[in-house]
Specification:
With 290 residues, the chain is α/β, with parallel strands linked by helices. It has 2 domains: 232 residues, Alpha-Beta Barrel (TIM Barrel); 44 residues, no CATH class. 48% of the residues lie in helices and 12% in strands. It contains 14 helices and 8 strands. It has a 5-stranded parallel beta sheet. Strands 1-8-7 form a 3-stranded parallel beta sheet. Helix 6 packs parallel to helix 8. The longest helix has 20 residues. The chain is globular.
């Protein structure tokens, strides 16, 4: 169901923004805000679960485990998850995709960096051969068709736009549902990619890890073939900033009163506390004395 919803988003003529979520509460907040898709970042999971950077500490099993806790809060909204490099060869990539599908993940993005990869926004990246990367995508399309495959390439920072287009074309031909040209941000370059791959949905990244990005309207992005814009860590950074201010205020003044916070009643409503405390109203037939 959620995979078909994600495929419909990719087939549409509009841009959908997918913010990062990392637990059931942020998932519920994203749904309440009206988002049509959300994203689970490996960097967010590594930071939240382990307090470590995105440098290979987290495996797909941990991503799937984290996803399984937040999918119920999404109310059918499709979740896209970071699948790194697939965590090995095509067989490993298929195992990862099947684990993701069991966890309720609708789609994944798969990178063409050498494994273990460097963080996507660090220098000195190394890429695997096009054929090796395409083989993983073909294996996923063949053995895990229930999950949407977004093929990410980091070729732009290594070899430039021409190589990025070559790889995106190969990955689309291998069976990817969409391509994710990391680092391609300028509208003219996105248009050139779209002209070279007509009909292939494009996914782009708006992570703060990539620094300042060119300001491009959704209308222009849509015309350049972009269908999904990921915002992997915006909410995480916002929440970390808010928590930092609250801790500092308590340390300095003994109270968090100066810091803007969600009201307690809004928080309990978000997590369903009132429903949980009134089980009779939900499950016991009317008129039965309990």
């Amino acid at each position: 169901m959620t995979a078909s919803a994600l495929r419909a988003i990719l087939a549409s003529g509009r841009v959908t923004h997918a913010p990062g979520v990392y637990d059931p509460v942020t998932a519920a907040l994203a749904v309440a805000a009206g988002h049509r898709a959300v994203h689970l970042s490996g960097a967010a999971v590594s930071a939240i679960m382990l307090g470590r950077p995105d440098l290979g500490y987290v495996h797909g099993t941990q991503i799937a485990d984290r996803a399984s806790t937040l999918v119920p809060a999404l109310d059918g909204i499709p979740l896209i998850a970071d699948a790194d490099t697939g965590y090995g060869n095509p067989l490993h990539a298929v195992w990862t995709a099947l684990a993701y599908a069991r966890a309720g993940i609708a789609g994944l993005h798969l990178e063409d960096q050498v494994s273990p990869k460097r963080c996507g926004h660090l220098a000195r990246k190394e890429l695997i051969a096009i054929g090796e990367a395409a083989a993983k995508i073909t294996a996923l399309a063949d053995q895990a068709p229930q999950i949407v495959v977004i093929a990410r390439t980091d070729a732009y920072s290594v070899s430039g736009l021409d190589e990025t287009i070559v790889r995106c074309r190969a990955y689309a031909e291998a069976g990817a549902d969409a391509v994710f040209p990391e680092g391609v941000d300028r509208l003219d370059e996105l248009k050139r990619l779209h002209e070279a791959l007509p009909g292939v949905p494009v996914v782009i990244n708006r992570s703060e890890a990539g620094g300042n990005r060119p300001a491009v309207s959704d209308a222009d992005l849509a015309a350049a073939g972009v269908r999904l814009v990921l915002h992997p860590v915006a909410a995480l950074l916002a929440s970390m900033r808010a928590a930092s201010l609250a801790y500092r205020s308590i340390a300095d003044t003994g109270t968090a009163e100066p810091v803007d916070r969600m009201p307690w009643a809004a928080f309990t409503a978000l997590i369903g506390q009132d429903e949980a405390l009134d089980l009779d109203a939900r499950y016991v037939p009317k008129g039965i004395d309990t």
